[in-house]
Amino acid sequence: MHDAVTAAPAPNFLERLQRAGSAGGAAIVLLVLFAVFALAGRNFLTPGNLVNIAMQSTILLLLALPMTLIILTEGLDLSMGAVLTLCNVVLALVAVKTGALAPALAAALAVGLAFGLLNGTLVAALRIPPFVATLGTLGVAQGLALVVTDGQSVVGIPDAVQQMNSGLWFGLLPPPIAIAALAYLAMHLLLYQTRFGAYVFALGGNREALTLAGIHARGNLIAVYVLGGLMAGLAALLLTARINAGHPTAAIGMEFDAIAAVAVGGTSFERGKGWLLGTVLGVLAVGVLRNGLNLMSVPSSVQVSAIGVLVIVALLIDAFRGDRR
Amino acid sequence: MTAASLDLNRGPLAHLSQGTRSVVYRLLAMALIAAAMSFASEAFLTSNNLLNVLRQASLLFLLASGLTLVILTAGLDLSVGANVALSACLAATVIKGTGSVALGVAAGLGAGSLVGLANGLLVTLLRIPPFIATYGMLWILHGVTYWFMKGETIHGFPPAFRAVGSGYWLGVPIPVYVMLLFLAAGIVFAQRTTWGQEIYAIGANPEAARLSGVPVRRRLVLVYVASGAMAGLASLIFLARLNSAEGDIGETLTLPAIAAVLIGGTSLFGGVGSMLGTLVGAVILTLVLNFMNLLTINANWQPLVTGVIVVLAVFLDNLTRKGDSR
Question: Does residue A187 sit in helix, strand or coil?
């Protein structure tokens, strides 16, 4: 019975072509943005700034990777930014109290795990539409972040945490880059080399068949959201190190950047079609756009408009592909 | 069929339609909540406080009424809060710039409706799922409003305009009259007109509606425009009450508005719900938040409580419709 979905079937020629097409779309978007800012912005094409873009993109990548899986299941997680924010303040509070990294990270991961479980249960077991379930938990996480900090910043982050941003591993590797690369590798293996990964594609593309084949669809769907929560917990470590504080609105709205990255990367909101490497290109596209607009001193609140337009464009491309299928 | 649901069908309300019964139950729930609150806090059952609740609920209802139409079609509009912000800021700028309240009102309503039109076109022509299209719109509007306002505050409007938000007539806040007017219009539109019935039909089964000759796309555009226009109207009343506009004015109203619709018994899956239900939902939510205020519970708890209420409302809706759909 299980054989039918044990591993993702090898893509046939047409599917390869389609993947290449979406790859092309994401790559073109990235290249165009890159070219525009390289020509328009004076300080864009410097080694320091390019490293900066990579560093800034790591947090977003940690969110966008699990968001890809969630969207592949025809789901959505609007709570990710608020959960990351809550993890950020919890991590900061514990780090300030203990002065150590391990318990703080554990606390953040625990918070992420709890919200992942909650989201997964609401969506998979109670069958609440994902965008409403996670909109509700967005409110809960945002409220908790405000309540535990009383609306104030948490400062005095210990060195152990700060080193995650300013330090170097083995004398040359910035920890955020290393963590993001490892996270991508792990997620790639999980999605393309395991039975769970095959289920993720099937949850979006053909949930009925999955259930008929006797697969525990609910459990797998919950696991996808748990992954999202845990990655938000991990991202909180990089965020806290980067901003050197805990702040009750630190990452509010960041789920939009993640969703945008996934959409630009060519993953469809319907039909369970998408690919993980495209999300990396999408993350870089959003990173380049934000960085370029930053250099032109466009305020962050206004940058989201540009990202919104980017999403609409990506969805247009997606709609075209859907029509031609 | 459980014994309980059989009893409900045979009970004193059996002659009423299911929709009416669902509203009656919600009214009873509202009365129970109000009764419980009046025991817990002395300040609750004062005419001042209750009028205040009504004033807040009327703003929420106006925003939620357009949203009700959208959700009846199994759609969603996540951009209403951001739309309020943009419309209010535009209206404020026009009133300040031209000195004409009429032009400001036109700007607010026009901006709101245009945003709704954009949503409707994204959903129908480009076939983007409504929650994604309106979510993208949310952030586009957010950015546009910030760019437009540049962090400044506009305040101090003519008294005649401010009266719309904070005035009284015969001892009752003026927004309450606006709410009653739109409640009546909404009920007539949804229940008594062909267009209204077509909106229910689209939510219940879009394919069947299309086959029976309903112009689905045009009706869908209509509900998103209605939602946008109501956001524009709500923004004017909000602006009149606060007497100042900032870039983030009203942005946090989206979650409460969705909560009001869902508490009111309108199903996210479309085809089921009512304007009267949404009004009761708006009052129930406002009662709860007002009660938290009276108990001097930190306002930081409000998004948390609203979020829990949203999830609970959908969960209960799923329970009562178990086996119906999906």
Answer: helix
